[in-house]
Design a protein that fits this description.
24 helices; 4 domains; FAS1 domain; binds 2-acetamido-2-deoxy-beta-D-glucopyranose; single chain; elongated; signal; alpha+beta; 7-stranded mixed beta sheet; Adhesion/Biosynth-related; GH20264; FAS1_dom_sf
């Protein structure tokens, strides 16, 4: 009996060696599923089920080998693929715990069999995934059986090799199962690469925060490395509260295991000071953390601070440590210094490309930013610059400077302030680029809030809000403003301010032409508020304009607003043309449009047919034209009261009555 099972184990081992030493996890899954004898077997060792790389390590380790023969245990076995990715030695006993735990039985932490019994942390996330430290248990591959000694044993296959905290070979004392305090104190003897923690350690000692790092339980500790204290004054800003802000009590966060973008309460969370910390992954795959000081005080200003994780997921006795490249909560650079920091950052900086574009355009923009005492920047992410339409523009310094200036606001504007401005309507904010405005919209509350910003026809979403600097804020956005990426039709369709004009153009088939990329349109688009005003002024005409039966007239009216030429007319062009003539004559589908454009108090107004119409949003650029959003349609009296009892005719009695009521109301209000 013994001989037989020994033989079959050997046979299986040979088979595994030959066939799947490099097999992917998927192959392994098939193997286990197909082998019906195995899945039913008890009283057999699961040595033969194990990925061969781990098996050979296990057999060489006498403690592990005898555990498997003699004791109850749980073994976390990395796939062969995980081994291929793994560098450095593997600590077999760190993968074994001396009690059998099925997936359901795994609690928050289990003791490993390594010297000192350092714990392994279990995370069960919302998707039902289970993680051991940073390794995921592959669901269908767990096996449970009773060995020949009658001991219950469980094997879970995981997708990463588990890495315990280890000392450098040169370390003098024995180092096992350190808590976070011992970790900080003995950092120089640990295997942490080039990362040093001397500055932070001395501040921690100075502030007497030892107990925070000694606290039993399972916490997350963020430790800034010396590299992050190059600014000489920075270390003095690390006070007791700042240190609190680097600890997330009673929560263990391994980067692969935890939900990202979920603010966690730090140890600095009380009445006068509230700091949250969240983990997030940048597009390039690099893990970051950010602190958000929601309520600040004199020493701890409000706002977000970002830090890259330089070494993640180091397990300690009372939780997990992540080394970060700069301290959180500390706001001690200007916007300019912040942008300049991406110069030295090599491939790493989230705003590297933005900085390069500024310098390529001559650097004056940066000088301009530096001249502002209060400033907010909408900074496009590296990925945002990866669009083909930018290629032609980027060589044109003047145009590029205008575009960059469109991303700069002379004010300190965080989301809280934007929200105040945004209470009932889309908030309009001037930029450094004269006569160009940004429009903000905030939807949702708290951490679910989505902030969008529109500038020069581009609607961008804020990816990282409120990155705080001494003189303002940086918001990272997902698109470059002012560089068009949709047609006039695409813009009309998606812009919340133009939906009435879009609707009218749809049913009257006026819109059909607007997707034509061979054309250059200049389109004066009445905004929704403008159409609402006509509803007050001419209720029945307004109603009819939006009825399918009268679509011929709606189309006619819209055609008056659409200039078709071989190039577009910006508001600046039109204002300049108006200097030399009474009326600028612009070609339209049927005939022509005669307008004047003037500037009043830094804004453009359109003079048409003895009417003055505000240009609410000039120069919304599209790939096949430009849109100017205006406050009122180009609507004539004769459109309303057409001879021969035409469709749009208002009852004149009605108008008189309405006027009478208005006058009465006005008097009453006075
Ligand atoms: C491991 O255990 C098996 C079964 O008990 C035994 O046959 C083998 O000799 C052991 N290997 C080592 C290297 O101790
Ligand atoms: C910034 O200020 C300096 C000195 O006041 C001035 O010479 C320079 O032209 C300004 N630069 C910009 C871009 O505004
Ligand atoms: C840029 O976009 C192209 C295609 O749109 C994509 O293949 C490429 O990976 C992108 N590059 C970066 C750095 O995002
Ligand atoms: C913007 O307008 C101000 C005041 O109207 C003017 O002083 C400044 O030169 C203008 N800047 C640019 C870049 O046109
Ligand atoms: C940007 O587009 C979205 C979706 O169309 C819209 O909800 C939002 O209001 C727009 N933002 C601005 C500032 O116009
Ligand atoms: C407009 O054209 C683009 C491509 O040029 C196309 O993807 C889009 O679907 C078109 N829109 C409509 C409404 O036809």
């Amino acid at each position: 009996m013994f001989a037989r099972s020994g033989l079959s184990a050997l046979a299986a081992l040979v088979l595994l060696c030959c066939c799947c030493s490099f097999a992917a996890a998927a192959d392994l899954a098939d193997k286990l599923r197909d082998d019906s004898e195995l899945s039913q077997s008890t009283a057999k060792s699961f040595r033969r089920l194990m990925p061969v790389r781990f098996y050979s390590l296990l057999e060489q380790n006498p403690v592990a080998n005898s555990t498997l023969s003699l004791r109850s245990c749980t073994i976390f076995v990395p796939t062969n693929e995980a081994f291929q990715r793994h560098k450095g030695p593997t600590h077999v006993l760190y993968h074994i715990t001396t009690a059998a735990f099925s997936k359901d039985q795994l609690e928050k932490a289990v003791s490993s069999d390594m010297d000192g019994n350092p714990p392994l942390y279990i995370t069960k996330n919302r998707n039902g995934d289970i993680y051991v430290n940073n390794a995921r248990i592959i669901p269908s591959l767990s096996v449970e059986l009773t060995n020949r000694e009658g001991k219950r044993q469980v094997m879970h296959i995981i997708d990463e090799v588990l890495e315990p905290l280890t000392a450098l070979p040169s370390a003098k004392a024995e180092i096992n199962n350190l808590d976070a305090l011992q970790f900080i104190q003995k950092a120089d003897q640990l295997n942490l690469g080039d990362n040093k923690l001397r500055t932070y350690r001395s501040q921690m000692t100075l502030m007497k925060k030892e107990t925070l790092y000694q606290a039993p339980g399972a916490h997350t500790f963020l430790l800034p490395v010396d590299e992050g204290f190059k600014l000489s004054t920075r270390s003095s800003l690390v006070d007791g509260k700042v240190i609190d802000g680097h600890v997330i009590p009673n929560t263990v966060i391994f980067t692969a295991a935890s939900q990202h973008d979920e603010p966690k309460t730090s140890a600095a969370f009380e009445d006068q000071l509230k700091v949250t910390v969240s983990f997030f992954k940048q597009k390039d795959g690099k893990m970051h953390v950010k602190s958000n000081t929601i309520i600040g005080d004199a020493k701890h200003p409000q706002g977000v601070v970002l830090a890259e994780i330089v070494r993640a997921n180091i397990p300690v006795k009372n939780g997990v440590v992540h080394l970060i490249h700069r301290p959180l909560m500390i706001i001690d650079t200007t916007v300019t210094q912040f942008l300049q920091s991406f110069k030295d950052n090599g491939e790493n900086g989230a705003l590297r490309k933005f900085y390069e574009v500024i310098m390529d355009a001559g650097g004056a923009v940066l000088e301009g930013i530096n001249n502002l005492s209060e400033v907010t920047i909408l900074a496009p992410s590296n990925e945002a610059w990866n669009i083909s339409s930018i290629d032609n523009i980027i060589r044109d310094r003047k145009r590029m400077t205008d575009i960059l200036n469109m991303h700069i606001i002379k004010d300190r504007l965080n989301v809280e302030k934007i929200r105040e401005k945004n209470a009932n309507m889309i908030a309009q904010v001037p930029t450094v680029n004269n006569r160009t405005f940004l429009y903000f919209n905030v939807k949702g509350e708290g951490t679910d809030a989505v902030v969008t910003v529109e500038g020069g026809g581009v609607n961008a979403t804020v990816l990282q809000a409120d990155v705080a600097q001494t003189n303002g804020f940086v918001h990272i956005i997902d698109r470059v403003l002012g560089v068009p990426h949709t047609t006039v039709l695409g813009k009309l369709e998606s812009d919340p301010m133009m939906s009435d004009t879009y609707k009218m153009g749809e049913f009257s088939h006026f819109n059909d032409q607007l997707n034509n990329t061979q054309r250059r349109y200049t389109f004066f688009v009445p905004r929704d508020k403008g159409w609402q005003k006509t509803e007050v002024d001419y209720p029945s005409a307004h109603k009819k304009l939006f009825m399918r039966d009268f679509s011929y007239h709606s189309k006619n009216l819209l055609e008056r607003h659409l200039v078709i030429a071989d190039h577009v007319f910006t508001m600046k062009d039109l204002a300049q043309m108006s200097l030399t003539t009474d009326n600028v004559v612009l070609p339209t589908f049927r005939d022509s449009l005669k307008v004047r454009v003037e500037e009043e108090a830094g804004r453009y107004v359109l003079l048409w047919n003895y009417k003055k119409i505000n240009v609410y949003r000039p120069d919304v650029e599209c790939t096949n034209g430009i849109i100017h959003v205006i406050d009122y349609p180009l609507l004539e009296e004769k459109d309303i009261v057409v001879s021969g009892g035409s469709y749009l005719q208002e009852s004149s009695i009605c108008i008189m009555l309405a006027n009478l009521i208005m006058i009465t109301v006005a008097k009453f209000l006075n």
